[in-house]
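Re-run with default settings, no changes from the original entry. Doing this only to confirm the output is reproducible before filing.
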Amino acid sequence: MDRKIISTGAFFGMLAIILGAFGAHALKKVLSLEELTTFETGVKYQMYHALFLLFIGITNELTPKTKKTIHNLVIFGVLFFSGSIYLLATKNLTSIDFKTIGFVTPIGGLLLILAWSVLLFNLVKKKS
């Protein structure tokens, strides 16, 4: 499980760097400053959670079941949160109206908060 978590973190991190560079170079020419800032928010949160997964993968403080729960929450949280932000920020480049998926962003944010909450709860519980 640890290898899978670390691999997911590495993949999310690599993808965040690629998307960040794409945003800074290619999208800079076609997006407004506001849209570019929104896109960069998705990249930042994806990278934060890539690093979070790397930490989860290497720590010995959590059970495999807890690690799996956090892993799943982060995967879906990043896909929903960052993924919807990428689509919403670039909606002017396509003919697709992504406003209908706007409700997914806060769901993704909630999943990311839950992942951190699971970590905190399990660390506090272990100390007791």
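The radius of gyration is 16 Å. The chain has four helices and no strands.
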